[in-house]
Structure formats: C-alpha cells, structure tokens
C-alpha cells in the first residue's frame, strides 16, 4: 500500500550517507538511499570536505526517492543525524574554509590535555560539560586550528558540527540540538546552554555558534526552495533539529523518556560505542556524559578502532571478514588510529602471544576480540552512570542491543556474545541511526515525541540471542595487555 505520509531520516556518518524513506504511519522502511564520502589524512589526521557530505546527502535522497516508489509530494519532513564532534568552519557565505576535522582525528591531543588541565581539572569539566576534553572533542579541535591555522580560525564566520552544517543547508537557519552540542565540550549539560567561561577560554565568540534548539518535537525550519530543488523534495516540509548519530540510534531503538531507560547499547561502526539513555545526568570523568535527543542523557564511551580497523586486519591477512577463529593465546589490539578509550592518542596496533601454531584466522579473531573488549570494558561504567549496580542480576541480564554495520556480521555477534556473557538484542532493522532520524523528522512534522513514535514503529524490535558463558580467559588476557599499555609498561 502506498503510504500517504513519508519522512526522511538521514545518517551522515564517517564513511557514508544513508537516507531512510520511512512510512510515517507504520515506520516501514520504504527505501534506503546511500552514497559514500571520503575521509582523507594520515599520521593522526582525519578530514572530510563538508561539501562532499552535502553532495552525498543529495545523492542518497535522490536514490531513496527513486527506490521508494512514492511521489515526492508524500514527503512531510526530514532530519539529519551526523557523526559527532567534527569541527566545521564556514565563511560568511556558509562555505567551508577548510575540510572538517573529524572525531577520529587525534592531532588535537596536546590541546585536549591542556584544556583538561584548566578550569579545575578533569572532574570539574565532567561536572559542568558532562565530558573531559580528549582529542575527539570539538573544543580541542578548535584549539588545534587556532594554533596551527590561525588564519582559518580568525576568518571563521560560523562554527558548526556535521549534522547542524547539513541542517542549515536544508532549512537556511542555524540550529543545533542539545545531544550533539554536548559533544563539543563548550556546552554545559548542567545548564543546558553554551558555557561562556569555556568559550572565553578558547576565544570563541558565541555568535559564531548555532542556537541550541529545545528538545521535544523540534522543528527548526522548513526546506528552502533551493534545497528542495536540489533534493527533489517539496519546499516547505518540516526540517527537524536533528542530532548526533549515537543519540539518533537511541531514538530509533525507542530508548529515552517515552520509552525504555537504562538499557545498554553497543554500536559497532567505524567507532565502537557503548551507551544508554537515562534520566541521571552523568558527570564521570571516565565517560562522555552526553545529552540525549529527548531531554535526557546519554553516558557513552567511544573507541576509535572498531569495524574499519578489524576489516583492515582481515585485508592484511587476505581473509574474508568472517573467516576468523577465536584468537587463542594471541592478543591483537587494532589501535590503528591511536585510541580514545583508553585515552592513548599516539597508540598503534599491538600484537602479543604469537606462537608457531598461531593461524591467520586466529589473528583475525584476536583483532575482533581486541576491538570488542576495548569497548565492552566501559559497559559497567555506563551502567553505573545510570545509577545502577552492574552486578545486580536484574541489571546484568538486560539484553545488550547491537547497532551499526558490525551488528550484521556473524563474527562480531559471536565475539560480543562470548566476551560479554550477556543476552543480545539484534534489531531486525539495520539502520537505526537513519530510522532514529526519521522518527525525529516525524516528530517535527507532527508535533509528536520522536521516541514515542519510534516505539510505536517498533524499529528497535528484533531477535533475542541467549547468553553463553563468558569467556573470562580471553577477557583477562586482552584486558591485561590493555592495562599494560595504559600503565606505559611493555604489553603481554
Ligand atoms: N555484514 C557485515 N559484517 C561485518 N561488518 C560489516 C557488515 N556490514 C558492514 N559492516 C561494517 O560496518 C561498517 C560500517 O558501519 P556503519 O555503522 O555504517 O559505519 P559508520 O556509521 O561509521 O559510517 C564498515 O566498516 C563495515 O566493516
Ligand atoms: O565520536 C563518536 C562518539 O563520541 C563517534 O561515535 C562518532 O559519532 C562517529 O560515529 P560512527 O561514524 O562510527 O557511527
């Protein structure tokens, strides 16, 4: 049946853009348009041209519209969820002054350390912004730009995050949301506003930043005529505030105020993430204490090396990504991009425990184990940030929801199952970020709560995988190598 109202959720993530054309009444995914964009750089640098995101958004929407088989006039709203933290600097005409510095660019590590030492130190930062500056955070990137390319920083007429750069291209108005703003380290989750003392510390004029839209069914504007012509969608449809990609995944899963609270999620994409939607404001220096898209919070830990790093190890070994076996004695930490959790921006990959009988398949399995343990180590801290005891059996038995490209992978699912010892919930829908954005678009078009909409759609429903006994031997082997790296000693 042809739906009468369609909404478009856009996921502009690290490697690609996806546009989910979704039946607003039922949440049925009608089509998923996709377009890749490039990440360039080496030696710690990771950059993308924001104009490529805009081009990819146009291509993904055009492809989705063709495939959905609905008239453009059925589309009632659009929302963008984007990779977090990226620094976009624009001239007075809204054109990028240079490529965006991405979340996994580690060059700002010295600036992050200097910032973390200011204002009373890490605990004080966590208390006011929710998070301690690390190289990923936008404030650290801004400081890097001021030091290394002062001309670009001084000429900036606007400073944006990836999702609000795209939202502005759609609606012609500057706007961001509390979720993505909380990844800058210049927004306070305690006050719900930009922190003027921090802006003073980093020499950034607040007028360069987009206003933070209130949470709820937030429509920030309407699709401009120019954007409508470019995308082939009707001018005047609702444009939502959008949010960061992890916040949108929570919405798509139906997690948040109108849905389930304090249930953990594991994101397996370029980044590995663990997070939960909660009502307790996180202020632990060990986590990023983000805001969520629905007025609550999203304590989260993020690693820089997940699916892409493991795929790289598979390519080096000449193996298909699922041609892997448990690692045995071998431990491989695929920290190809440095690491953020733990905060080791200068780290590189580490291999220990190699024997004559170690096989290539075990080495690949060890890369999965290394990446999985690195992110799963933060799970208990996320649970504690929700005000819960991770050892409470009722809490420990809550299924871990898997999202991101890796959730489609057999070896990822089996590795996470074995190392977490938890039941897993694998949503039938593969694109939770784009579907979460679609729910935000539906909320903006109808005035309804987006988490409630996603809950009714059932986009978070899926297959429950029962737990297996936890592989503690591998867990301790891998964590001891990580602990050795953190302590600065020799691994192994
Ligand atoms: N079937 C699969 N098995 C394992 N990994 C997969 C599968 N499909 C996609 N991926 C991985 O998912 C990643 C892309 O996931 P995605 O969540 O879209 O990433 P991002 O949001 O960072 O752009 C790729 O790096 C790829 O390795
Ligand atoms: O930096 C973070 C979260 O703090 C990352 O999770 C980015 O938001 C990029 O995500 P993916 O492209 O891996 O989805």
Automatic annotation (TrEMBL):
* Top enzyme category: transferase
What the entry lists under SUPFAM superfamilies is as follows: Actin-like ATPase domain
Q: Which sites bind substrate?
A: 84-85
Domain Carbohydrate kinase FGGY C-terminal: residue ranges: 320-444
Listed A to Z, the keywords are: ATP-binding, Carbohydrate metabolism, Kinase, Nucleotide-binding, Transferase, Xylose metabolism
Q: Which InterPro entries has this protein been placed in?
A: ATPase_NBD, Carb_kinase_FGGY, Carb_kinase_FGGY_CS, FGGY_C, FGGY_Carb_Kinase, FGGY_N, Xylulokinase
The residues responsible for catalysis, as annotated, are 245 (proton acceptor)
Q: Which catalytic reaction applies to this protein?
A: D-xylulose + ATP = D-xylulose 5-phosphate + ADP + H(+)
GO MF annotation: an example: kinase activity
Pfam families for the chain: FGGY_C, FGGY_N
Residues under site feature: Important for activity: 11
Q: What is its EC number?
A: 2.7.1.17
Sum up the protein's function in the record's words. Catalyzes the phosphorylation of D-xylulose to D-xylulose 5-phosphate.
Per the record, the similarity remark reads: Belongs to the FGGY kinase family.
Protein name, UniProt field: Xylulose kinase
Species: Streptomyces chryseus
């Amino acid at each position: 049946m042809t739906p009468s109202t369609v909404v478009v959720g856009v996921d502009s993530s690290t490697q690609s853009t996806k546009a989910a054309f979704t039946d607003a009444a039922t949440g049925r995914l009608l089509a998923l348009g996709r377009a890749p964009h490039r990440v360039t750089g080496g030696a710690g640098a990771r950059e993308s041209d924001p104009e490529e995101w805009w081009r990819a958004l146009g291509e993904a929407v055009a492809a989705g519209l063709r495939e959905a088989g609905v008239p453009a006039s059925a589309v009632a709203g659009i929302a963008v969820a984007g990779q977090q933290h990226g620094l976009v600097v624009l001239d007075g005409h809204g054109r990028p002054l240079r490529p965006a510095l991405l979340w996994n660019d580690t060059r700002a590590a010295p600036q992050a350390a200097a910032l973390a030492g200011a204002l009373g130190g890490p605990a004080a930062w966590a208390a006011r912004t929710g998070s301690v500056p690390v190289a990923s955070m936008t404030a650290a990137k801004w400081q890097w730009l001021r030091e290394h390319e002062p001309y670009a920083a001084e000429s900036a007429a606007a400073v944006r995050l990836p999702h609000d750069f795209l939202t502005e291209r759609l609606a012609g108005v500057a706007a961001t949301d509390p979720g993505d703003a909380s990844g800058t380290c210049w927004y306070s989750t305690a006050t719900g506003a930009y922190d003027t003392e921090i802006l003073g510390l980093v020499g950034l004029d607040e007028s360069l930043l987009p206003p933070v839209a209130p949470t709820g069914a937030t429509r920030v504007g309407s699709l401009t005529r120019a954007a409508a012509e470019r995308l082939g969608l009707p001018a005047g449809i609702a444009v939502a505030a959008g949010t960061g990609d992890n916040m949108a995944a929570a919405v798509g899963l139906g997690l948040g105020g109108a849905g389930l609270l304090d249930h953990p999620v594991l994101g397996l994409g370029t980044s590995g993430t663990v997070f939960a939607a909660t009502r307790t404001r996180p202020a632990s220096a060990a986590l990023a204490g983000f805001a969520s898209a629905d007025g609550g919070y999203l304590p989260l830990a993020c690693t820089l090396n997940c699916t892409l790093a493991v795929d790289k190890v598979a390519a080096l070994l000449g193996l298909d990504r699922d041609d892997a076996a448990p690692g045995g004695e071998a431990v491989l930490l695929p920290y190809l991009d440095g690491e953020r959790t733990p905060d080791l921006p200068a780290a590189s990959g580490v291999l220990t425990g190699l024997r004559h009988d170690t096989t290539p398949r075990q080495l690949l399995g060890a890369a999965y184990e290394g990446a999985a343990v690195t992110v799963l180590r933060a799970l208990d801290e996320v649970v504690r940030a929700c005000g819960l005891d991770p050892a409470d059996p009722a809490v420990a038995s809550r299924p871990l929801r898997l999202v991101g490209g890796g959730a489609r992978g057999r070896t990822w699912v089996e590795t996470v199952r074995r190392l977490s010892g938890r039941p897993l919930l694998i949503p039938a829908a593969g694109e939770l970020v784009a579907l979460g954005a679609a729910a935000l678009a539906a909320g903006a078009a109808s005035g309804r709560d987006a988490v409630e909409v996603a809950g009714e759609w059932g986009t978070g429903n899926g297959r429950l995988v029962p737990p297996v006994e936890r592989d503690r031997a591998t867990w301790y082997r891998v964590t001891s190598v990580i602990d050795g790296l953190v302590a600065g000693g020799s691994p192994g």
